[in-house]
Design brief:
By secondary structure, this protein is an alpha/beta fold. The chain has eight helices and twelve strands.
Length: 274
């Protein structure tokens, strides 16, 4: 059994998990470990079993570490895949001896994340690098990994689904928070007016936004990637998954980086503007 350590409250870790497991050929024997409410949505987990982290653990690294030691003993996974945070999201993996483990690395605000580490990073057989890392980040992973290897995730079919609307439309794609969804929808409406376009703004996000531009529509659609190719324009944030999934339609992708405590959307956006 392969246990995928997808800690983080958002949708991104789970979306990436299913793509990574598929790319590595681990999907048929994988179990997800998650603290996200999205892990209760079968569309997101795509049929994979899930171990839910108890909410009572809160942000207590010591309690989390004790719980995790018991869990690993009970599950006895053959392999552990640790997503994004090599020392765990709270630093809970520091100093731990893991089962055979791989790390899945994407861009972090490394100086900020490093403050959470209170001991040595665990050892990894390999770190799978998904995008260019900040230099200090890459150096630290080189010290705790037997090797670093690039992992290119297969891009999704951006026209694999029937169009969501039978008329010209722009897609706004974001999983939240609400204020950012509203800001992206407003941005799309403004750009439409500037272009004198009669296309419809269609917002794809899990919860209905608190405000939409006049004439705009909302849908709870997951996954969104199969509908990208049918849109005249895409408007989104600059998270890892959406930037990876929209490579084939970058010429019509308008992306806005948002501040995150650990994810470096601004560096990712800059890299994709080159």
């Amino acid at each position: 059994m392969v246990l995928y350590y997808a800690l983080g409250g958002g949708l991104g870790h789970l979306t990436r998990a299913t793509r990574v497991l598929e790319a590595l050929g681990y999907r048929d024997r994988a179990v997800l470990l998650s603290a996200s409410d999205y892990a209760r949505d079968p569309r997101v987990t795509d049929g994979l079993p899930v171990v839910h982290v108890p909410a009572a653990l809160g942000r207590d690294p010591a309690a989390f570490r004790r719980w995790l030691v018991d869990l690993l003993g009970a599950l006895a996974p053959d392999r552990l895949l640790v997503d994004s945070f090599p020392g765990g999201i709270l630093g809970e993996l520091c100093g731990m001896e893991l089962p055979p483990a791989e790390h899945v690395a994407r861009r972090l605000r490394w100086p900020v994340y490093a403050q959470r580490l209170d001991g040595p990073l665990p050892r990894y057989e390999v770190t799978r690098v998904l995008e260019q890392l900040e230099q200090r980040h890459a150096q630290r992973l080189g010290l705790c990994s037997e090797r670093l290897a690039q992992l290119d995730l297969r891009p999704p079919d951006c026209a694999g689904g029937e169009p969501l609307l039978d008329r010209p439309h722009w897609l706004v794609v974001h999983s939240g928070p609400d204020a950012e969804v509203v800001a992206l929808a407003r941005r799309a409406a403004t750009r439409l007016r500037e272009a004198s376009s009669s296309a419809t703004v269609l917002v794809l996000c899990p919860q209905a936004p608190s405000w939409l531009p006049p004439g705009a529509e909302w849908r709870d659609v997951y996954p969104a990637a199969p509908f990208f190719g049918h849109a005249e324009k895409l408007v989104s944030a600059a998270g890892f998954n959406v930037m990876s999934e929209t490579r084939a339609v970058r010429d019509r992708h308008d992306f806005v980086p948002y501040f995150r405590a650990l994810d470096d959307q601004h560096a990712r956006a800059s890299a994709n503007c080159v």
